[in-house]
Amino acid sequence: MTCAPLAAALVAGVFAAALAAQPPRTPDGKPDLTGVWQGGSTQPGPWAEANAGLGVGGTGRDPNAPVVASSNDRPAGREGAPYQDWAAQKVLEAFNRRGIDDPTGRCLPAGIPRSVMLGLFPQQFVQTPTQLVILYEYMSAFRVIPFGTSHPDDMLPSYMGNSVAHWDGDTLVVDIAGFNDKTWLAGTGTFHSDALHIVERYTRVSKDRIDYEVTMEDPNVLTKPWVLRSSLMLREGTRLQEYVCAENNLDLDRYEQLLRNGVDFTRN
Amino acid sequence: MKGVRLVAGVCVAALAALPAAAHHSFGAEYDLAQPITLTGVLTKIEWTNPHTHIYLDVTDDQGKVVSWQLEGYPPVALHRIGWKRDVTMKVGDRLTVTGWRARDGGNWGHSREITLPSGDKMMFGPPAGTGDGGGAPAVDVR
C-alpha cells in the first residue's frame, strides 16, 4: 500500500535526474558543447574532486598509484597502431629512446588528437551558431572551427591543422587537414606526414560527457585509418589559466647532460 | 545490492581510464628503482613552467646538510588540485617528500607526494613513468 507513492516518487526522481543529465542545446536546437572539459576522463564532478588522490598523470608503474595512462603511452586496450613496417620501426626507436624526442618536450603544440585526449590541462569550448572555438591551456593552443564550410585552398602547414565542421544529427563532425609533420598522434613516437587527415566526432551524450572518436589517415605512414575513442568530462568551475612552457624548460639540457655523462637510459 | 555493485564497477572503470599529459620523459631522467623519501627544510620554491621545483635542505646520516632539488607538476596543475601558492607550504617548513632519484645519483629527483607540517599529504608530482612511453610501444613490431 505504501509502495505506490514511493514508486511514483522514485520514478519522478529518476525522470528529473534524467532531464538534468540531458545535454544542453543552443537556441537553434543544436547540442551545445560550450564548457570547460577534461580530456580522456570518465570521472564526473569538479576538477579537484574528479582527480582526488590520483595525481593526474603517469603510467601506473608507480606501485602507489592506480593505473592511469599518459599521452605518451600506448592507448589502453587498443591493437597496435597501424603503421607501415618501416614507420613502425621508427616509432619503436622513439619508444626505446624513452620519448626524449617528444615535440612537447620542446614546448611545441601537442597537435591532434593528443591535445584533445590529454588530461592534465583543461580545454574550453565556446560554441556560437557559426563556429566552435576551442582553447587549450596546454601550450596555449587554439582552434577556430567554422561550421558548414570547406578548407581554404591556401592552408599553411600547422601543428593544430585547419578544422571545419558540420552536424551529423547530434554529432559535430570536424574535418582537419593542413598539418605539418611535427607532432605525435597518440603515444610515444607516433609520427605522421603532412598528408595527415583527421576526422573527429564529438557527441555530447549527457550534460557531463562528450564522447570522442577520432579517425587518423596518413597513406605515407599508416596502412589503414587509425581509430581511437575517448571522452571528455565537463569540469564546472574550472578556469583556463596561463601555461608558458618555455619559461624554465630544463629537460632537454638534462637529457644531453646525462647522455654525455654516460648515463644510458635508453631501452635496448 | 545490484545497484551498489554497478556503482563500484563504474568507479573502477573511471579510475583506470584517467589519462594525462606528459611534458617530458620520467624514465630518461629518473630511476623507478630508486624511490626516495626525504625529510628536510624547504629553502626555495620555483613556481615555474613546465615544472615547479622545490629545494629541500636534508641532513644526512653524517650530519651534513645536503640541498635537494625536486620537480613537480606545473603551477596550474597544482592550483587545480588545491595548492595555494605561498600558503600551503612556505620556506622554512619541514616537509617529507616521496619520489624517485635522478638516474645519475645526484641530489635531485622527481616528487610525488608531500607531507606538510600539519601532517596533511598532498600530491605534488605525477606518478613514476609519466612521459617515457609506458610499458609497451604504440606499435606491434614483429
The CATH class of chain B, by name, is: Mainly Beta
CATH superfamily of chain B: Nucleic acid-binding proteins
Q: Provide the domain count of chain B.
A: 1
Q: Any idea what the shape of chain A is?
A: globular
| Major sheet characteristics of chain A | 9 strands, antiparallel
N-C termini distance of chain B: 47 Å
Question: Which two protein chains have the largest interface (Cβ within 8 Å of the partner's Cβ), and how many residues from each?
Answer: A-B, 83 and 54 residues
Rg measurement of chain B, Å: 18 Å
Q: From the coordinates shown, what is the CATH architecture of chain B?
A: Beta Barrel
The helical percent of chain B reads 10-25%
Strand arrangement in the largest pleated sheet of chain B? 1-2-3-5-4
Low-confidence stretches of chain B: 1-19
| Cα separation of the termini of chain A | 72 Å
Order of helices and strands of chain A: HEHHHEEEEEEEEH
Silhouette of chain B: globular
Beta content of chain B comes to: 35-45%
What this model shows, in words?
- The complex is a heterodimer of chains A (268) and B (142).
- Chain A has one domain.
- Chain A contains five helices and nine strands.
- Chain A has helices spanning 3-21, 47-50, 85-96, 114-117, 251-260, and strands at 35-39, 123-127, 131-136, 141-146, 162-168, 171-177, 197-204, 209-217, 226-234.
- In chain A, strand 7 and strand 8 (209-217) form a beta hairpin.
- The termini of chain A are far apart.
- Chain B has 142 residues and is of the alpha+beta class.
- The N and C termini of chain B lie far apart (47 Å).
- Chains A and B meet through helix 3 and helix 5 of A and helix 1, helix 2 and helix 3 of B.
